[in-house]
Specification:
The complex is a heterodimer of chains A (328) and B (174). Chain A contains twelve helices and twelve strands. Chain A is of the alpha/beta class. The longest helix of chain A is centred in the first third of the chain and has 21 residues. Chain B has one domain. Classes of the chains: A alpha/beta (328), B mainly alpha (174). The interface between A and B is medium-sized, with 34 and 23 residues.
Chain lengths: 328, 174
């Protein structure tokens, strides 16, 4: 699997050209740390984050973190939480404009029709839900019928905001802090939007295996399409639509970290019992239309049922993927 | 309709539509609710009110400039010519924006996404530059200094609506 990395000019005498590969880092991955068991915020030292970003050659990211409030060198957890809620709210505006939840619903409906068992209320769990936009949109639209909609995230501040927003609109969904794969009872379908590129190295394969182990019937994960235009498009869009410097920074970094179709398929195939399928993979799409693309997974015996439920849209499902040389 | 009437009417109409859209943009990314049509309607009204206030101030400035001119008729003709120069820059931009918005509203999702990525996103980014370019173009072709100053003031004051509405009402998340 490709590790998110970029080439930087090698420094020092005798080192010509580009040799060293350093990780590409998102600030939002670095400024929060939680105790997995209790959910309590753990202290994050600002200078350590700055040093990590500088080591990655990301001076702009380091400057953004240097401007965050801190006390005795430790980032103020409450201020970071507020920043993340603001950034996710801006991110929701991008998702609204690109109609991401609508795209999700177009696939999730047929997916549930294919895998849901008679008599059982299907359960959809959004992994890494943030402020719960996808789940709340599905609940508000009511397009899936009688479905148990849940969102799970490790960040308590984001879960609290998701819960508040759902309560304000009286939406039939719930949000839980914790591990989505350790919930009581299994999900029928796991979904996510914009989560996969955060999972690096072995964590990506483990993510898919965890869904199989949790007894899911299917999954549907949307993430940034790793096209050659993605970083440029991300820069332009985050510049035009977002105000938070952190959001603008991480938006572009996300596009550069996006997994290729091939990497995603390779990782997804490591999950036993779930067949991965790409819908409109990047090499089948006009890159100007491919801001995100979904990866679906179903039990082998449900593949034909899924194709039937999708109807004409099933022609965009593929089980193969081409290795892609990264342009960045 | 003569140019003396049509030019200010068209420019004012474009400024008001732009102000309403500025109000919309000022409010975006600040409200996480799913159903927020009313929220955006209020934001657009606020932008529209801001734009109307700006136009009102500009009308006072232009009135003063005309009233103090040695020959108000010649000055008005000069202002109209400057307005035409502005329209040569702003007009095509406004037409593309309107076409993109209509396309986004009526087209299926994939072509609408195409329009966003190639149209609405870049257009938002270049809007301030187009506006400034329009002001400078008009100033460059203006017959006298007061007219040139008026065109630059008009262009820059239109750009003030969005940040003002944002700071006044949407600085913090809803």
């Amino acid at each position: 699997m490709t590790t998110a990395a970029r080439r930087v000019p090698a420094r020092g005498p005798g080192l010509a050209g580009y040799r060293t590969r350093v990780p590409i880092l998102e600030i939002s991955d670095l400024i929060i740390r939680h105790d997995v068991a209790t959910g309590a915020s753990l202290p994050v030292r600002r200078d350590e984050v700055i040093a990590a970003l500088r080591a990655a050659g990301d001076r702009r990211g380091a400057r953004i973190v240097a401007g965050l409030p801190h006390r005795d060198g430790v980032l103020e957890a409450a201020a970071v939480d507020r920043l993340l809620v603001r950034t996710h709210t801006e991110l929701q505006r991008l998702n609204e404009e690109l109609r991401i939840a609508e795209q999700l619903a177009e696939l999730l409906g047929p997916l549930l029709a294919a895998v849901a068992r008679g008599g059982e209320r299907p359960r959809v769990v959004d992994v890494g839900c943030g402020i719960g936009y996808a789940v709340r949109w599905l609940a508000a639209a009511g397009v899936l019928g009688d479905v148990d909609l849940s969102g799970v995230d490790f960040n308590p501040a984001l879960v609290a905001e998701a819960t508040r927003l759902a309560d304000v609109e009286g939406l039939a969904c719930r949000f839980v802090r914790g591990d989505a794969f350790a919930l009581p009872g299994s999900a029928t379908v796991y979904i996510s939007v914009g989560v996969l590129h955060h999972l690096r190295g072995d964590a990506l394969g483990a993510f898919f295996r965890a869904q199989a182990d949790a007894g899911a019937q299917a999954y549907c994960h949307f993430d940034i399409a790793a096209t050659r235009l993605a970083p440029v498009g991300a820069w332009m869009f985050h510049r035009a639509r977002m105000r938070e410097p952190l959001g603008r920074h991480d938006g572009v970094v996300s596009a550069r970290r996006a997994h290729t179709d091939h990497d995603l398929m390779t990782a997804a195939r490591s999950a036993p019992g779930l067949v991965p399928l790409l819908h409109r993979p990047t090499h089948h799409s006009n890159p100007f239309c491919a801001s995100v693309r979904p990866l679906l997974g179903v039990r082998p015996q449900e593949v034909s049922a899924l194709r039937a439920a999708l109807g004409p849209a099933a022609r965009h499902l593929v089980t193969d993927s081409r290795p892609m040389r990264r342009p960045w | 309709m003569s140019a003396a009437v049509a030019v200010p009417v068209v420019l004012a109409s474009i400024a008001l539509v732009d102000a309403a859209l500025a109000g919309f943009r000022a409010a975006t990314g600040r409200n996480g609710l799913i159903r927020k049509r009313a929220y955006y309607v209020v934001a657009m009204r606020r932008g529209l009110a801001g734009g109307a206030a700006v136009l009102g101030c500009l009308a006072l400035v232009l009135g003063a400039v005309l009233a103090t001119a040695p020959d108000p008729g010649t000055r008005y003709t000069g202002l109209t010519q400057a307005g035409i120069s502005m329209l040569w820059v702003i007009g095509p931009f406004a037409a593309v924006v309107v076409a993109s918005l209509v396309g986004y509203a009526v087209l299926p999702r994939r072509p609408a996404t195409f329009l966003i990525l190639l149209g609405l996103g870049p257009l938002t980014l270049i809007r301030p530059w187009v506006t400034v370019a329009a002001g400078l173009t008009a100033a460059w072709t203006a017959l006298d200094l007061p007219t040139a100053v008026c065109t630059v003031v008009a262009a820059t004051s239109v750009l003030a609506v969005e940040p003002w509405v944002h700071r006044r009402w949407y600085a913090e998340p809803a």
